[in-house]
Write a structure and sequence with these properties.
Two copies of one chain form a homodimer. With 412 residues, chain A is α/β, with parallel strands linked by helices. The first copy, chain A, contains eleven helices and 18 strands. In chain A, 51% of the residues are buried. The A-B interface holds A 16, 19-20, 50, 53-54, 56-59, 61-62, 64-66, 68-69, 71-72, 75-76, 78-80, 82-84, 86-87, 92-94, 96, 98-99, 120, 143-145 and B 16, 19-20, 50, 53-54, 56-59, 61-62, 64-66, 68-69, 71-72, 75-76, 78-80, 82-84, 86-87, 92-94, 96, 98-99, 120, 143-145.
Chain lengths: 412, 412
């Protein structure tokens, strides 16, 4: 009997009817002969409500107490789903993160899973139960409740699948899979049949919000295929898997645009060892996350160091730069807020030439000016004017035929 | 530094403002030099809402899952109260029942505390924290979450006070103490300054809902004075303590009336060993709780066996009696639903004569007919017509001067 792990997000368990439907799906897999583990999130807007309750009492609530509070949302869902299954005549048992020994570090609010002692789940599965495990939460070495951060239930589910040796983790959501780009921005976007972990990690880091990076990393590390699919029907969604040979033929799998960025450039920075490190250490110390660093030499002594940050972090970043300017030698600081980033991702880039050329041509044909360019092995990103962002994404999607199934696209 | 345990019920933590007020009270005790442990219930109607959510999915939810669900209410309150204290600049930490090792048996929904490993609380107190512990909940040997049943947070608080060696447990509530009788039924009822554990146990068993019997038993067993007081002001409430000599002078401390009863009489029951035991074993097997058993011999072979049950249990009791009648020899079964019980309680009865006489005289003067009488060492109860119940209680309260402070009452 194979173990199947099914994860249901907040919208898929928002009310009694949806909890019943999710329970029915778990029961179906059980009746097909599988041992079923369900991972569930908090119902609908419960977490938002709890956050509001907390902020009413403390504008800056201690993270340990926040985890204690928020973890109740998932605990409620799992007990309710166990009740729903029992009402269907199926033995079911719910567990908190603590009860399945989902051990994490003590970084409240963004804890990382260190170990899962899944014995209790195995015992219950062998006794014929469907097991329902609270997602998003764990427990540290001292028994404090922790949470895994945004999208943490996905990570719980994939990590449990890994610990239980389940080959696949099904992520049920309100969309039917992962699209080549955001269909709200490019209505002809197509659903991908499969995508590699590495591509999905790039897309996740570019703000394509379907799945959390940590969950994808777990899948990659522990060989768990992640199946993102709709909770509303039985159609196949998108499989996130190891790279397989046919993926090489797909030059660009997906495209994204990000509009919530700002660019900071330190101009005329004296190019001595440790200067750049000092800047980024100081930004990290201010909890500013930095993307897309570019350093260009102006001459043998001076360089320009530029990078992007989330626009919500811009004030903190400005302050951090202001502080560090006393220690580094830098002629001026240039900040641009009206900026966006358009990116294409695909493992086929490794073996195909002309992808960058194709992208730049599509942008220039559409009169989109490129501010700067960064690349990874499987990604090309261009900073463009914020006003051009939507047009730029459409141009790039058209150029790489992201409105067609991957196998029908022309090769560059 | 003395340890103080403060318990706040659901109405005392119903919203942010009330949580802040409760937190302020804990902080005051802390600032007076005490080590403070707070035990809190679920906010306002949260538990009712969770029960409704459960019943929507399963009309007969498994008790283990119900405990898993309901325990979240208290967990939310304690984390919120810790946040409120931190916002006041006070170090605070919240704990679940599991985290303080409130170990119970596995009787979900009515678990009994077996052991409390309070080390984690002591450490946190010594580190200068106010500790906020979720009431009502515990954990069994296998790590399942349990709940202690109605009024369980009182029991949590008194048990914690016992485990921590705190001499007093303060129970904050929306009334300012315990009254000689229910002021809604007898407006001149007076607040008691103190009452013995045994009297309070009798009153609790008679439906005076101020405190749960288990909490009082813990207080008695482990020498914890229970101080029932108002969460709205600083006035002294009622102390529940061991019997002290001056209590002997108080013949009747309190009176109660119960209207939710039914009386069952098995008439002409063959008086052979085991017959009565069989009846009550069968009732217990049907989860019917029996009060006030009276057996009277009709002749050397036959007896009448009568008892009361909660009216909500009457259908189950009737069915159980119907079943057992096949095995016992009984001429007829008589059931009375229009019945009520009026009781007086007081440790002074042990050393004073004439209490029963005084009670019966008060009832007869007021034309209340007595159906039957039961007594314990410190209690006299009369079954009366339901229609006479209110009048009977007032007559008895007047007779024993329950409108006067205990020390000013005339002796019989």
């Amino acid at each position: 009997m194979a173990i199947v792990v099914q994860k249901f997000g907040g919208t898929s368990v928002a009310d009694a009817e949806k909890i019943r439907r999710a329970a029915g799906r778990a029961l179906k897999a059980h009746n097909e002969g599988h041992q079923v583990v369900v991972v569930a999130s908090a119902r609908g807007k419960q977490t938002d409500q709890l956050v509001a309750d907390a902020l009413e009492l403390n504008p800056n609530p201690p993270k340990r107490e926040m985890d204690m509070l928020l973890s109740t949302g998932e605990q409620q869902t799992v007990s309710l789903m166990a009740m729903a299954l029992e009402a269907m005549g199926q033995k079911a048992i719910s567990f908190t993160g603590q009860q399945v020994q989902m051990v994490t570090d003590a970084a409240h609010g963004k804890a990382r899973i260190q170990n899962i002692g899944a014995e209790r789940i195995r015992e219950s599965l062998d006794a014929g139960h469907i097991c329902i495990v609270a997602g998003f939460q764990g427990v540290d070495d001292e028994g404090n409740i922790t949470t895994l951060g945004r999208g943490g239930s996905d990570t719980s589910a994939v990590a449990l699948a890994a610990a239980l040796g389940a080959g696949t983790c099904e992520i049920y959501t309100d969309v039917d899979g992962i699209y080549s780009t955001d269909p709200r921005k490019y209505p002809n976007a197509v659903k991908m049949e499969q995508i590699s972990y590495d591509e999905m990690l790039e897309l996740a880091s570019l703000g394509a919000g379907v799945m959390h990076g940590r969950a994808i990393e777990f899948g990659k590390k522990y060989d768990v295929t992640i199946h993102v699919r709709s909770s509303m029907d039985d159609s196949t969604g998108t499989l996130i898997t190891h790279e397989v040979p046919q993926m090489e033929g797909i030059v660009v799998s997906g495209a994204t645009s990000q509009k919530d960025l700002a660019k900071i450039a330190l101009i005329g920075l004296t190019n001595t060892p440790g200067n750049a490190a000092g800047v980024f250490a100081h930004l990290a110390g201010s909890n500013v996350s930095v993307n897309d660093i570019i350093q260009t030499e102006v001459n043998s002594e001076k360089a320009t160091l530029s990078f992007t940050v989330a626009r919500s972090d811009l004030d903190a970043a400005k302050q951090a730069i202001e502080d560090i300017r006393k220690q580094i030698d830098c002629e001026s600081v240039f900040i641009r807020e009206d900026i966006a980033e358009v990116s294409v991702v695909g493992v086929g880039m490794r073996s195909h030439c002309g992808v960058a050329e194709n992208m730049f041509k599509a942008l220039s044909t559409n009169k989109v000016n490129i501010d700067s360019i960064t690349t990874s092995e499987i990604r090309i990103s261009c900073l463009v004017d914020l006003a051009d962002a939507d047009r730029a994404l459409i141009a790039v999607c058209d150029a790489f035929e992201l409105d067609k199934p991957a196998t029908q696209r022309a090769q560059p």
